[in-house]
Specification:
Strand order of the largest sheet of chain B: 1-2-3-7-6-5-4
Distance between the termini of chain B: 56 Å
Helix content of chain A: 25-40%
Largest sheet of chain B: 7 strands, mixed
Number of strands of chain B: 16
Shape of chain A: globular
Shape of chain B: globular
Distance between the termini of chain A: 40 Å
Largest interface: A-B, 22 and 27 residues
Oligomer: heterodimer
Structural class of chain B: alpha+beta
Strand order of the largest sheet of chain A: 2-3-4
Largest sheet of chain A: 3 strands, antiparallel
Chain lengths: ~100, ~270
């Protein structure tokens, strides 16, 4: 189980609109819209919570069982990690467009 | 031959000095209506040498990189090469472009996307028209009908058929003409008009105008902002400005046919309280 605090990468500006987080990529200016579960995790991933705390928040907010909440949270965080969107030593992924 | 140019878009003037003669001739022709005598906020020394050979990504898409490092901006494009470094606090920079107007134009678009973002503005993929002195802006991706709307609006001054500059000044929203064009193939009018109408374009069999929800408008608008990132502060600025615009202005979805019948539909909607 991951015990360290989880923090979204500060290079990604975001804004919540009607429960959805809209995130701007720092590398190409593209916009990413998260679903409500992802938006909650993203907004709470400010470095003050670990995986357990994020799962607790998902269970409470969406009234789902803990097994499913943990699977969804892990999948989402893995996706963020792959895209370099977490503040971890690997840093943000480099992408290009246009 | 003139080698010193000041170009103004959206009320922001930039200066380009030491422009090589061949490029200078093209700039004078292309940006004529946007040449300015105003005070520049940044001045670039322009060169057309020292660039690497053009190259592309394996998927064929052009490569643009925009980055802010230690207060300095770095812009690079690989397919029609350009490189620029500038410091907005020192108001100076160096621009290396390929010796053609398209390379310069590409830089100018990127530059204004940066400059507008910190001034409650942005470039929007849109067609803009001035009707009775007020700005009508139709936004959408490629092929959505921006140039078509311009062609169906004979007699109205064109702000652009590609990128319109939107900016909030003195508590009001303005739509500015730009020298950035699409298939219309000529620059817009160098005018700023109070923004009267803003909507997305949808080709349809029947004409109609619907008001979008604020959330839908915000997401749709963001998807059409011309922006390359490079700074979280600037991204915050874009998010804040778009959010404010969709709070303060009605944003519509326009269903239009390939005729000018959308104008009466817009006028009807303007008269109708919502």
């Amino acid at each position: 189980m991951t015990a360290h605090p989880i923090r979204r990468h500060p290079q990604y500006a975001y804004r919540e609109v009607a429960g959805e987080a809209i995130i701007v990529s720092p590398k190409d200016g593209t916009f990413l819209v998260l679903n409500p579960v992802g938006s909650l995790i993203w907004s709470l991933a400010d470095g003050s919570r670990d995986l357990e705390a994020l799962i607790d928040a998902v269970v409470k907010a969406f009234d789902v069982d803990r097994i499913r909440a943990e699977a969804d949270t892990r999948t989402f965080l893995d996706d963020l990690r792959r895209k370099g969107m977490l503040d971890e030593p690997s840093g943000p992924a480099r992408r290009t467009k246009k | 031959m003139k080698s010193d140019f000041r170009i103004g878009v959206g009320g922001i003037v930039c200066r380009f000095v030491d422009v090589p003669p061949a490029l200078g001739e093209a700039l004078a022709r292309r940006y004529g209506p946007f040449l300015s005598s105003g005070r520049a906020i940044v001045s670039f020394k322009v060169r057309t040498d020292g660039l690497s050979e053009p190259r592309r990504n394996s998927d064929g898409s052009p490569v643009v990189e925009v980055e802010r490092r230690a207060g300095r901006w770095a812009v690079r494009r690989l397919d029609n090469p350009l490189e620029a470094e500038f410091d907005l606090h020192r108001r100076s920079g160096v621009l290396k472009v390929s010796a053609n107007e398209y390379s310069f134009d590409s830089f100018l678009r990127i530059l204004y996307s940066i400059l507008l973002a910190s001034r409650q503005g942005f470039l929007l993929h849109s067609a803009g028209l001035s009707r009775r002195g007020r700005g009508y802006v139709f936004f959408g991706p490629s092929e959505s009908g921006k140039t078509t709307v311009v062609r169906l609006s004979a007699g109205m001054p064109v702000l652009s058929d590609e990128l319109v500059a939107l900016r909030r000044r003195g508590g009001e929203w303005f739509a500015y003409g730009t020298p950035f064009w699409g298939e219309f193939a000529r620059p817009g009018r160098n005018v700023g008009t109070r923004l009267a109408w803003l909507g997305t374009l949808h080709k349809a069999a029947a004409v109609g105008v619907e008001r979008m929800t604020e959330t839908e408008a915000f997401r749709t608008l963001l998807g059409c902002v011309f922006y390359f990132g490079g700074s979280p502060e600037l991204s915050e600025g874009i998010l804040k400005t778009c959010s404010r615009l969709t709070r303060e202005m009605r944003v519509h979805r326009l269903h239009f046919r390939l005729d000018p019948s959308f104008w009466p539909a817009i006028s009807g909607r303007e008269r109708k309280p919502e």
